[in-house]
Write a structure and sequence with these properties.
Layout lengths: L1 E7 L4 H10 L6 E8 L5 H8 L4 E3 L8 H15 L3 E4 L8 H6 L4 E5 L11 H7 L4 E8 L9 E8 L6 H24 L3 E4 L2 E4 L10
The protein binds glycinamide ribonucleotide.
Pfam family, one: Formyl_trans_N
Protein name: Phosphoribosylglycinamide formyltransferase
Organism: Mesorhizobium zhangyense
Protein backbone atom coordinates (compact mmCIF):
# COMPACT_ATOMS: atom_id res chain seq x y z
CA UNK A 1 0.00 0.00 0.00
CA UNK A 2 1.19 3.50 -0.85
CA UNK A 3 1.98 5.81 2.05
CA UNK A 4 -0.29 8.86 1.97
CA UNK A 5 -0.06 12.12 3.88
CA UNK A 6 -3.14 14.35 3.85
CA UNK A 7 -2.81 18.13 4.12
CA UNK A 8 -5.72 20.10 5.59
CA UNK A 9 -6.61 23.57 6.82
CA UNK A 10 -10.04 23.02 8.34
CA UNK A 11 -12.98 20.69 8.82
CA UNK A 12 -11.36 17.57 7.36
CA UNK A 13 -14.43 15.81 5.98
CA UNK A 14 -12.58 14.79 2.80
CA UNK A 15 -9.69 13.62 4.97
CA UNK A 16 -12.19 11.50 6.91
CA UNK A 17 -13.49 9.99 3.66
CA UNK A 18 -9.95 9.03 2.65
CA UNK A 19 -9.24 7.53 6.08
CA UNK A 20 -12.46 5.55 5.91
CA UNK A 21 -11.62 4.21 2.44
CA UNK A 22 -8.16 3.18 3.62
CA UNK A 23 -9.64 1.29 6.59
CA UNK A 24 -10.37 -1.37 3.98
CA UNK A 25 -7.18 -3.43 3.68
CA UNK A 26 -7.90 -3.91 -0.03
CA UNK A 27 -7.58 -0.14 -0.62
CA UNK A 28 -4.16 0.53 -2.19
CA UNK A 29 -3.29 3.40 0.17
CA UNK A 30 -2.69 3.84 3.89
CA UNK A 31 -2.94 7.23 5.59
CA UNK A 32 0.29 7.63 7.56
CA UNK A 33 -0.09 11.23 8.68
CA UNK A 34 -1.97 14.51 8.52
CA UNK A 35 -0.35 17.93 8.22
CA UNK A 36 -2.27 21.15 8.91
CA UNK A 37 -1.23 24.77 8.47
CA UNK A 38 -3.78 25.72 11.14
CA UNK A 39 -3.44 24.67 14.78
CA UNK A 40 -7.22 24.88 15.25
CA UNK A 41 -8.20 22.82 12.18
CA UNK A 42 -11.12 20.65 13.26
CA UNK A 43 -9.80 17.76 11.18
CA UNK A 44 -6.80 17.37 13.50
CA UNK A 45 -8.92 15.97 16.35
CA UNK A 46 -10.71 13.69 13.94
CA UNK A 47 -7.40 12.30 12.67
CA UNK A 48 -6.12 11.81 16.20
CA UNK A 49 -9.31 9.96 17.15
CA UNK A 50 -8.60 7.61 14.24
CA UNK A 51 -5.07 7.01 15.55
CA UNK A 52 -3.36 8.93 12.76
CA UNK A 53 -0.40 11.13 13.75
CA UNK A 54 -0.78 14.83 13.01
CA UNK A 55 1.62 17.76 12.66
CA UNK A 56 0.87 21.47 12.64
CA UNK A 57 3.15 23.58 10.47
CA UNK A 58 1.81 27.12 10.87
CA UNK A 59 2.67 29.84 8.35
CA UNK A 60 3.18 32.36 11.14
CA UNK A 61 6.12 30.38 12.52
CA UNK A 62 8.17 30.93 9.34
CA UNK A 63 9.74 34.00 7.79
CA UNK A 64 8.80 33.15 4.21
CA UNK A 65 6.51 30.94 2.14
CA UNK A 66 9.57 28.98 1.01
CA UNK A 67 10.61 28.31 4.61
CA UNK A 68 7.05 27.25 5.45
CA UNK A 69 6.85 24.79 2.55
CA UNK A 70 10.35 23.49 3.34
CA UNK A 71 9.16 22.68 6.87
CA UNK A 72 6.10 20.90 5.46
CA UNK A 73 8.34 18.96 3.11
CA UNK A 74 10.42 17.84 6.07
CA UNK A 75 7.32 16.46 7.79
CA UNK A 76 6.30 14.66 4.60
CA UNK A 77 9.74 13.06 4.45
CA UNK A 78 9.55 12.09 8.14
CA UNK A 79 6.23 10.37 7.45
CA UNK A 80 7.76 8.62 4.44
CA UNK A 81 5.02 10.05 2.23
CA UNK A 82 4.77 8.68 -1.30
CA UNK A 83 1.63 10.57 -2.31
CA UNK A 84 0.19 13.77 -0.86
CA UNK A 85 -3.53 14.57 -0.84
CA UNK A 86 -4.64 18.17 -0.43
CA UNK A 87 -8.03 17.94 1.28
CA UNK A 88 -9.14 21.50 1.90
CA UNK A 89 -5.57 22.80 2.22
CA UNK A 90 -6.31 26.46 1.56
CA UNK A 91 -2.85 27.89 0.84
CA UNK A 92 -1.10 28.15 -2.51
CA UNK A 93 2.11 26.08 -2.48
CA UNK A 94 5.45 27.39 -3.74
CA UNK A 95 6.66 26.33 -7.22
CA UNK A 96 9.69 24.51 -5.80
CA UNK A 97 7.56 22.42 -3.46
CA UNK A 98 5.05 21.66 -6.22
CA UNK A 99 7.83 20.68 -8.63
CA UNK A 100 9.23 18.25 -6.10
CA UNK A 101 5.85 16.53 -5.68
CA UNK A 102 4.77 16.74 -9.32
CA UNK A 103 2.61 13.76 -10.25
CA UNK A 104 2.50 12.68 -6.62
CA UNK A 105 0.30 15.41 -5.16
CA UNK A 106 -3.43 15.61 -5.83
CA UNK A 107 -6.07 18.17 -4.83
CA UNK A 108 -9.84 18.20 -4.57
CA UNK A 109 -11.69 21.30 -5.70
CA UNK A 110 -15.42 21.96 -5.28
CA UNK A 111 -16.24 22.79 -8.91
CA UNK A 112 -16.06 21.29 -12.37
CA UNK A 113 -12.67 22.69 -13.39
CA UNK A 114 -11.59 24.64 -15.34
CA UNK A 115 -14.72 26.56 -14.31
CA UNK A 116 -14.81 28.28 -10.92
CA UNK A 117 -11.24 28.11 -9.71
CA UNK A 118 -10.59 29.70 -6.32
CA UNK A 119 -13.02 30.43 -3.50
CA UNK A 120 -16.82 30.70 -3.17
CA UNK A 121 -17.37 28.21 -5.98
CA UNK A 122 -20.92 27.28 -4.98
CA UNK A 123 -22.24 30.85 -4.76
CA UNK A 124 -20.51 31.72 -8.03
CA UNK A 125 -22.08 28.69 -9.76
CA UNK A 126 -25.51 29.77 -8.43
CA UNK A 127 -24.93 33.37 -9.53
CA UNK A 128 -23.96 32.17 -13.01
CA UNK A 129 -27.23 30.24 -13.27
CA UNK A 130 -25.46 26.90 -13.68
CA UNK A 131 -27.73 23.85 -13.81
CA UNK A 132 -24.82 21.45 -13.26
CA UNK A 133 -22.04 21.77 -10.70
CA UNK A 134 -19.62 19.34 -9.08
CA UNK A 135 -16.09 18.58 -8.00
CA UNK A 136 -12.73 17.71 -9.49
CA UNK A 137 -9.62 15.83 -8.35
CA UNK A 138 -6.49 16.90 -10.22
CA UNK A 139 -2.71 16.71 -10.07
CA UNK A 140 -1.25 19.81 -8.46
CA UNK A 141 0.72 22.27 -10.61
CA UNK A 142 2.03 25.69 -9.55
CA UNK A 143 -1.09 27.56 -10.75
CA UNK A 144 -4.07 27.43 -8.39
CA UNK A 145 -6.69 24.74 -9.17
CA UNK A 146 -5.11 24.22 -12.57
CA UNK A 147 -3.46 20.79 -12.91
CA UNK A 148 -4.40 17.83 -15.13
CA UNK A 149 -7.78 16.37 -14.22
CA UNK A 150 -7.97 12.83 -12.82
CA UNK A 151 -11.68 12.50 -12.05
CA UNK A 152 -14.81 14.60 -11.85
CA UNK A 153 -18.27 14.20 -10.44
CA UNK A 154 -21.27 16.25 -11.54
CA UNK A 155 -24.32 17.07 -9.46
CA UNK A 156 -27.49 18.91 -10.52
CA UNK A 157 -28.24 22.42 -9.34
CA UNK A 158 -31.85 22.19 -8.17
CA UNK A 159 -34.40 24.98 -8.38
CA UNK A 160 -34.39 26.76 -5.04
CA UNK A 161 -30.87 25.65 -4.13
CA UNK A 162 -28.83 27.99 -1.97
CA UNK A 163 -25.15 27.83 -1.15
CA UNK A 164 -25.82 25.50 1.78
CA UNK A 165 -27.90 22.91 -0.06
CA UNK A 166 -25.68 22.97 -3.14
CA UNK A 167 -22.41 22.70 -1.21
CA UNK A 168 -23.81 19.78 0.80
CA UNK A 169 -24.69 17.93 -2.42
CA UNK A 170 -21.23 18.59 -3.89
CA UNK A 171 -19.49 17.60 -0.64
CA UNK A 172 -21.20 14.21 -0.71
CA UNK A 173 -19.88 13.73 -4.24
CA UNK A 174 -16.38 14.82 -3.08
CA UNK A 175 -16.34 12.12 -0.42
CA UNK A 176 -17.00 9.52 -3.09
CA UNK A 177 -14.71 10.98 -5.74
CA UNK A 178 -11.51 11.58 -3.75
CA UNK A 179 -10.97 7.93 -2.68
CA UNK A 180 -11.76 6.83 -6.23
CA UNK A 181 -9.18 9.21 -7.71
CA UNK A 182 -6.58 8.31 -5.09
CA UNK A 183 -7.07 4.64 -5.91
CA UNK A 184 -6.46 5.38 -9.61
CA UNK A 185 -3.21 7.19 -8.79
CA UNK A 186 -1.98 4.54 -6.33
CA UNK A 187 -2.62 1.76 -8.82
CA UNK A 188 -0.83 3.68 -11.57
CA UNK A 189 -4.04 3.90 -13.58
CA UNK A 190 -3.80 7.68 -13.66
CA UNK A 191 -0.40 9.32 -13.86
CA UNK A 192 0.93 12.71 -14.88
CA UNK A 193 2.88 12.65 -18.12
CA UNK A 194 3.98 15.67 -20.16
CA UNK A 195 1.63 17.91 -18.23
CA UNK A 196 -1.40 15.73 -18.92
CA UNK A 197 -3.11 12.85 -17.15
CA UNK A 198 -2.32 9.50 -18.77
CA UNK A 199 -4.83 6.73 -18.11
CA UNK A 200 -3.92 3.07 -18.36
CA UNK A 201 -5.33 -0.30 -17.49
CA UNK A 202 -8.82 1.04 -16.95
CA UNK A 203 -11.14 -1.84 -17.74
CA UNK A 204 -14.24 0.18 -17.16
CA UNK A 205 -14.84 3.82 -16.60
CA UNK A 206 -16.73 4.30 -13.40
CA UNK A 207 -19.37 6.98 -13.77
CA UNK A 208 -19.77 8.89 -10.58
CA UNK A 209 -22.95 10.80 -9.98
C1 LIG B 1 -13.85 20.98 0.28
O1 LIG B 1 -15.09 21.31 -0.29
C2 LIG B 1 -12.75 21.10 -0.75
O2 LIG B 1 -13.15 20.71 -2.04
C3 LIG B 1 -12.45 22.58 -0.69
O3 LIG B 1 -12.49 22.90 0.66
C4 LIG B 1 -13.44 22.04 1.31
C5 LIG B 1 -12.77 21.40 2.50
O4 LIG B 1 -13.69 20.67 3.26
N1 LIG B 1 -11.17 22.88 -1.30
C6 LIG B 1 -10.91 23.98 -1.99
O5 LIG B 1 -11.70 24.88 -2.13
C7 LIG B 1 -9.51 24.04 -2.58
N2 LIG B 1 -9.46 25.00 -3.66
P1 LIG B 1 -13.18 19.51 4.23
O6 LIG B 1 -12.10 20.15 5.11
O7 LIG B 1 -14.40 19.12 5.03
O8 LIG B 1 -12.65 18.40 3.37
Amino acid sequence: RKRIVIMISGRGSNMAALIEASDDRAFPAEIVGVVSDKADARGLQLATSKGIPTRVVARGDFASKDAHDAAIDKELAAFGAEIVCLAGYMRLLTPGFVAKWQGKMINIHPALLPSFKGLDTHQRALDAGMRIHGCTVHFVTPEMDDGPIIAQSAVPVLIGDDEKTLSARVLKAEHHLFPLALRMVCEGKASMQDGKTAFSDIEHVEQVA
